[in-house]
Design goal:
The structure is a single chain. By secondary structure, the chain is α/β, with parallel strands linked by helices. It has 8 helices and 16 strands. The protein is globular, with a radius of gyration of 20 Å.
């Protein structure tokens, strides 16, 4: 078909993010896409289980015609239909990140014709992706500024290598997203966090992680990190990690997280999370690197001109902008402003005609 937009999946970041933003925008805007060279530069090219399940989930939500959707495939074709409300399930059957499943499905659910329930299964706390707690405590706050929201219930924790986690997400569709202006950061009000262990790991490790984070953030006054051990019914397998969030007087929230690994001291896990948050604070940004690239899609769809103050623009953000400009035909600008960057875009003001304006 000549009217299918072709996307090269090997540009810039060259990974799963190209797939996620391509499929989300395709479903919402009704633009058929063919994504080629999927993860071509990775050690295992093509679709991994979490990528496949994310595509299949959105295809189910919008009754898309889908070709090439199999493990290891380096090319898929996605021809979307109308996004329907209802109950949808996606199970990676691995420790693949539930947060990344949510990233691809959430924008689509917001533009469905009725409320959406997502039962997402896989890894709740996975490496190379935001932990699911981050999506709830940090990203959700930023999403609220667009006039959208979701609720989340963690039914079971899933860790590498077994997975087995389950998260239920409830989404109420919107008629249109609001523009955002996140340029005034304000001052630090408080830093909160949770430091956890699960399985057979001793609770002492959670205290060590919390102490490591606090030492790294010692210049801040109001820090509260709750250290605990997950109930075995919720999390029978071994894992340790920490999630931090920083509430600012402007209403912005910055976050960071880190997971334990074999051979890494627990205090160093906490130090890493604290160091990453400290770096974001020092940059003067209004969003952290995890949220920075995620807001791009929502800026595209919002009504009016949105602007976000960031630190260094990440490769993931550059990739999201590149794909968004191709599919949505919008134009972003990145302007240096003192030590930060301002990312700006006049959105499409995309309207969900199934939802009446309030």
């Amino acid at each position: 078909m000549s009217d299918i937009l072709e996307i090269n999946g090997n540009v810039l970041e060259g990974g799963g993010q190209i797939l996620r933003i391509s499929i989300s925008l395709s479903a919402i805007l009704g633009v058929p896409v063919r994504v080629t060279n999927i993860r071509a530069g990775r050690s295992k090219p093509g679709l991994a289980p979490q990528h496949l399940k994310g595509i299949e989930l959105v295809a189910d939500m919008c009754q898309a015609k889908l070709k090439g959707a199999s493990i290891g495939s380096t090319e898929i074709e996605f021809i979307p239909g109308r996004i329907r409300g209802g109950h949808y399930v996606a199970d990676t059957k691995t420790a693949g990140s539930i947060s990344l499943l949510l990233q691809v499905a959430l924008p689509c659910a917001l533009f469905a014709d009725a409320p959406v329930t997502l039962d997402l299964k896989g890894g709740t706390n996975a490496d190379m992706a935001p932990q699911i707690d981050y999506m709830d405590r940090v990203f959700r706050v930023t999403l609220e500024k667009f006039g959208a929201d979701f609720s989340m219930e963690i039914l079971r924790r899933g860790y590498f290598p077994k997975g087995g986690g389950q998260v239920r997400v409830e989404v109420k569709p919107v008629q249109c997203l609001k523009r955002i202006d996140l340029t005034d950061r304000g001052d630090v009000k408080e830093i909160t966090g949770t430091s956890f262990v699960a399985g057979s790991l001793p609770i002492k490790l959670s205290h060590l992680m919390a102490e490591g984070a606090k030492r790294e953030l010692s210049s801040e006054k109001n820090i509260k990190i709750h250290s605990y051990k997950e109930y075995w019914q919720m999390a029978p397998d071994n894992c340790n990690g920490i999630i931090l969030s920083c509430n600012l007087s402007s209403g912005c929230v910055l976050g960071s997280d880190a997971l334990g690994k074999r051979g890494i001291e627990a205090s160093d896990v906490g130090r890493k999370a604290g160091e990453n948050l400290r770096r974001t604070l020092d940059s003067g940004a209004c969003v952290d690197p995890h949220t920075q690239d995620q807001v791009i899609l929502y800026m595209v769809l919002a009504e009016g001109r949105s602007v976000v103050r960031t630190g260094d623009v990440t490769l993931h953000t550059e990739t999201a902008i590149y794909i968004a400009e191709i599919i949505a035909k919008v134009k972003f600008s990145i302007k240096a402003d003192a030590e930060q960057n301002l990312i700006e875009c006049t959105g499409l003001g995309f309207m969900n005609k199934s939802i009446p304006r309030e």
